[in-house]
Amino acid sequence: MERFANNSLGPIASAETRRALGALAEERPERLSLAGNGLVAVPASVLSLTSLTCLDLSRNALPCLPSSLTRLDRLIVLRAHHNALRALPPHLRHLACLEELDVAHNALTLVPDALTELRALRVLNVAHNAIDRLPKALFELPQLDVLDARGNPVAATMPLLRESTSADEESNDGDETELLSDGSSSDWWAGDDRGASELRSEVTAL
Predict the structure, then answer these.
(1) What is the residue-averaged pLDDT of the chain?
(2) Which of 17-26, 34-43, 111-120, 160-169 is predicted least confidently?
(3) Given this model, what pLDDT does residue 26 score?
(4) Whole-number Å distance between alpha carbons of 197 and 87
(5) What digits encode the pLDDT tens for the residues 150-160?
(6) Where are the beta strands (DSSP E) in the chain?
(7) What's the confidence (pLDDT) of residue 191?
(8) Rounded CA gap, 119 and 114, in Å?
C-alpha cells in the first residue's frame, strides 16, 4: 500500500508534495494511506486516483469530505475516523462498491439517508459522534454486518429501532446485523472498545 502517513507529507501545498501525489496517478495504486498528516482538505490529486479501492484519511483535521470523492467509484474501504467532520455529503450514495465506512470520533450529528443507498455496505462505524437518530432503512441494508454507534445519544434508543425494524420481517434466516451500542439488552453486543474496522479485518486489511 502507498503510505504517506504520520506527517510524512509535509506542507500539503508544497510542490514536492504535489509531485509525490501526482506521480501516483501513473502507478494506479489501489490503496493509499494519508493518515495522521494534519490535513484540512483532501488533496485534489488524490481525487484523481480512480484506481483506489482503499483510502485512509483518518487522524487528520478534515472538516468535511468533498463531494468529488465520488470520482473514486471503485472504493471498497473509506476510513475518515478521528477528524473534525460535522456532516457527510449525500453524494456518498454514489460509491456503489463501498463495503466499509469508518467515520468514528468526529462531530457528526446525523447519518444522512443517502447512506441507506449503499447496498454493498458491510461495516458502518459512526461511534463516538453526536448522532441522535439513525435512518430506519439502515437496518434493512442487505449486506450490513456491523453497525457501531457506541458513544452517541442514539445508542440508548437503538434497541427500539431494531425492534420496530424487524417487526415486519417474516424471517431473517438467522442472519442479523451485529449492532454495537452502549445498551445492555441481551440482543446487543457491547463488546470491548475496538472499532468496527478491527472486527471485520477481511474487509479492512490494507
Answers:
(1) 78
(2) 160-169
(3) 75
(4) 20
(5) 999 987 766 54
(6) 2-3, 31-33, 54-56, 77-79, 100-102, 123-125, 146-148, 178-180
(7) 29
(8) 11
Q: Number of C-alpha atoms within 13 angstroms, CB side, residue 20?
A: 16
- Average pLDDT of the residues in 161-168: 48
Residue 20 · residue 49 · CB < 8 Å: no
CA distance 60 to 36: 5
- DSSP state letters, 40-87: SS--TTGGG-TT-SEEE--SS--S---GGGGG-TT-SEEE--SS----
Which carries the bigger pLDDT value, residue 199 or residue 90? Answer: 90
* Distant-in-sequence, close-in-space partners of 72: CB < 8 Å, separation ≥ 6: 47, 49, 50, 52, 55, 95
Q: Are strands 146-148 and 178-180 parallel, antiparallel or unpaired?
A: parallel
pLDDT band at 20 (very low <50, low <70, confident <90, very high): confident
The candidate with the shortest Cα–Cα distance to 29, out of 10, 58, 51, 11, is 51
* Residues in Cβ contact with 151 at an 8 Å cutoff, skipping those fewer than 6 apart: 127, 128, 129, 182
| b/e sequence 68-84, b meaning 16+ C-beta within 10 Å | ebbbbebbbbbbbbbbe
Tell me the pLDDT band of 22, cut-offs 50, 70 and 90. confident
State how far the Cα of 119 lies from the Cα of 97, in Å rounded to an integer.
8
